[in-house]
Write a structure and sequence with these properties.
Two copies of one chain form a homodimer. Helices cover 54% and strands 13% of the residues of chain A. Chain A has helices spanning 3-15, 19-33, 61-69, 77-84, 102-113, 142-174, 185-195, 200-207, 211-225, 230-239, and strands at 37-44, 52-57, 89-90, 118-125, 131-138. Chain A has a five-stranded antiparallel sheet, with helices on both faces. Chain A is elongated and about 70 Å long. The structure holds a DNA duplex (30 and 30 nucleotides).
Chain lengths: 248, 248
DNA sequence: CGAAAACCTGTAAGTTCTGACAGCTTAAAT
DNA sequence: ATTTAAGCTGTCAGAACTTACAGGTTTTCG
């Protein structure tokens, strides 16, 4: 639980070059902070309809297969929390499901049977629409592990940020192309106004150019983004954070 | 630096109901962890072209005015890091700016003159496209404060997550309407496929309905989102995270 | 039952976008 | 000095979207 170990793990994550290395580091995190299993999942919206999913799982295989096979991700209250919040969720603070909500109730019972009695889930949202979630679990009773989990929270949360960063780096290099499609200023401007619902003619007035020019830039942007039309380009540009260049 | 203080701050943030209360809590964070000033800024994309900006500043007023007035946010390397990463940035790890990059060089010099010699910046991205940044600073030399900042990092990072959550809650209740515009399943489906670049006719094939019906749903969605056309609806739906209902 | 909401479908005129054609200027880089 | 990239502009036909009209069924809830 010493800060030194946390620092060491962070440096290991910054140096990691493969998913396997990261997996091994996660195991170490479990060992150091008194957890048994971990699971990391990230969703990267390369496409909205079919986002790229990425798993690093230290969960029992049987449970993982059951979880994915039965679509438990739709049910899991932990997932819902992580989609909407940025704060860690120690499982003992989970509200008991509504009476009528049988599926959730059953799901949580099953999880306990698989040795996931207590734990904490750490959400992580990236600047490019990625959503990720690291769960650390133990088979101890919630009462016993509560204080230990609370004490570990600041460390594992910080670690989860570096984990996320490491995964992004590794995935970008070895798996998919998180192509950053460099757009020109004009292209971004035209996309921005198009996303604000302006027609080409209106955007032309705003930018003091001809309508034809606006269309031209939007077409170029669409080509660079490798999309089929204007709507697609807008959606892609928004998820990739290509618009809103200025913070202020 | 004890965990108990961290826990106490988090509980205070969870209970905070106004921006003033949050400001006060941030001051306490500074005091506890040995910083002098803090600044929190969040950008919420209610509109892409004119996002809602939200400040809680404990910086010297003169510096804050200068910073905003001169558009330093465009230059500030700390802001650039926070837009692209999820990990904390201790200022001493900032790479020195390129030789030719005079504006950045000058900017950093000015910051030092205003008593912002060392510090750390904590990025935070929310699940609905919000981007936020908490900076904690001190007038000590980087060498002196380095180890203290490193030790505080896990705590202040965790705190920054709860801070962000608290700000979201307060803003939603007292300032702007982060209206969640409830769309029906069909409307979301149609928006999703439109965002994927499908024409109404194509979406109709996918959903096994008539083209007219798809147009109808998209129009209804646009009305509910209070936008002027399809492109606008797509952009809004994407930033608000209304699409991609399933994680898996 | 009646009302509301989700869901579904059609026509027609007008506007906007798309794709393919062709060509210009200016500033930076080799 | 030549190339390259960004930026800019035009026309035209056909495809797609918008708006406004007018209807329908099914499910849910009070």
């Amino acid at each position: 639980m010493t800060p030194a170990i946390c620092q060491e793990i962070i440096e290991a994550l910054e140096a990691a070059g493969t998913v396997e290395e990261i997996h091994e580091i996660c195991s170490r995190v479990c060992a150091y902070y008194g957890f048994e299993h971990f699971a990391y999942v990230a969703r990267i919206p390369v496409s909205l309809a079919k986002p790229y999913m990425c798993y690093v799982s230290g969960f029992p295989e049987e449970w993982r297969d059951r979880y994915l096979g039965l679509g438990y991700m739709q049910i899991d209250p932990v997932v819902h929390h992580c989609l909407k919040h940025v704060t860690p969720l120690p499982w003992d603070t989970l509200m008991p499901p509504e009476k009528g909500d049988k599926p959730v109730w059953q799901f949580m019972g099953e999880a306990r049977e698989f040795g996931l009695k207590s734990g904490v889930s750490l959400p992580m949202h990236g600047g490019f629409g990625e959503t990720a979630l690291l769960s650390l679990t133990s088979n101890e009773s919630p009462e016993k592990s509560q204080s230990r989990i609370r004490a570990a929270l600041p460390y594992v949360y910080l670690i989860s940020a570096y984990l996320h960063e490491a995964m992004r780096r590794v995935i970008a290099s070895e798996q998919i192309d998180l192509n950053k499609a460099e757009l020109t200023e004009r292209e971004k401007e035209c996309l921005l106004w198009a996303a604000e619902g302006k027609t080409s003619w209106e955007t032309a007035q705003i930018l003091h150019v001809s309508e034809r020019t606006v269309i031209f830039h939007l077409q170029n942007a669409a080509k660079k983004l490798n999309v089929v039309n204007r709507q697609h380009a807008i959606a892609r540009a928004v998820v990739m954070g290509l618009i809103t260049p200025q913070f202020g």
